[in-house]
Automatic annotation (TrEMBL):
Gene3D superfamilies from the UniProt entry: Glycerate kinase, domain 1 (3.40.50.10350), Glycerate kinase, domain 2 (3.90.1510.10)
InterPro entries: Glyc_kinase_flavodox-like_fold, Glycerate_kinase, Glycerate_kinase_RE-like, Glycerate_kinase_sf
Entry's Gene Ontology molecular function annotations: glycerate kinase activity
Record-given protein name: Glycerate kinase
Amino acid sequence: MKIVIAPDSFKESLTAMEVANEIERGFRTVLPNAEYIKIPVADGGEGTVQSMVDATDGTIIKLNVTGPLGHKVQAFYGILGVGYQGDKKTAVIEMAAASGLHLVAEDKRNPLMTTSYGTGELIVDALNRGIEHIIIGLGGSATNDGGAGMAQAIGAHLLNSAGKAISPGGAALTELVSIDLTDLHPLIKACSFEVACDVNNPLCGNKGASAIFGPQKGATPEMVEQLDNALKHYADIIACCAIQDNRDYAGAGAAGGMGLGVMAFLGAELKPGIDIVMETVNLAGLAKGADLVITGEGRLDSQTLHGKTPMGVAGVAKAQGISVIAIAGCVSDDANVLLEHGIDALFSITPRALPLAEVLSNAKHNLYSTAKNIAALYALSSAK
């Protein structure tokens, strides 16, 4: 019997690998002779680096970079290990690690000033280590600078009318008059970039980066208008400098316009995060011949349908006719819709109504116990 365990993390509680370990431990109690394959996964958002490093026996690289407000912060990215079957040395970067909203105190959030420079520094470090393929997860950013800071960090000169570098932040984009790519990092052209992007917002307008995401980053209505105009000007200069103008491309507005920035300066391709992760960890190949696939995340609800890990895993499994069980910390009332889209059974590990702190602290034990009971039920059904 072959069982594949491919969960996401349980946020604020367990990493994806810890979840996989507890599920395996519970199942082994009942089915000790089964073959278990653990593949911690993610959907391109928070936890993607750790999941993909764990899945491939890779390495976490930690370094100090420029944070959203210009102060040094400790950030990280991952280099995939021997478990990765691709033909290029690959790194995985979460934009939020260097330029995330969590790095800015609530009373200091101001997207007029915040910069994506630190994300560019992570890219440069990876390139300098000989990385040939970089996966970047967008989301959770504190910035609205269109990736201008990132561009400056990788060697682009974004110049004002005096021929000087423009200041950091979204507001300073209005100063931009020219872009010089002469000193762009020489290894960028030798590297392929995939960007996990799960929003389809254009750069500007009422569905653009500033209007939709600006307020959560501290933007007032007046600031939203200012930032939107700044991004329009930025896109105009990009077009004037013979760089491809993707301002209306679905996803260009992701992460404060970083979607546009990675396309313009890295030649990146935007893809759904779950698709990138599933392909990179080779879930389809590892699942071949499996009798059961187990997945899960912290909360299962109707939103799980929209690009979340359990649905990505279920899609791969169902294409091979494999049954799928999903386990979560919490299963909401509307989660039964998932049963119509490739998941065969849903289980919550929370035994009763409990304070959140207690739920989080007992997650490991409750996950083990739930997995053990699921395994017992599965063994009974398989014996018939």
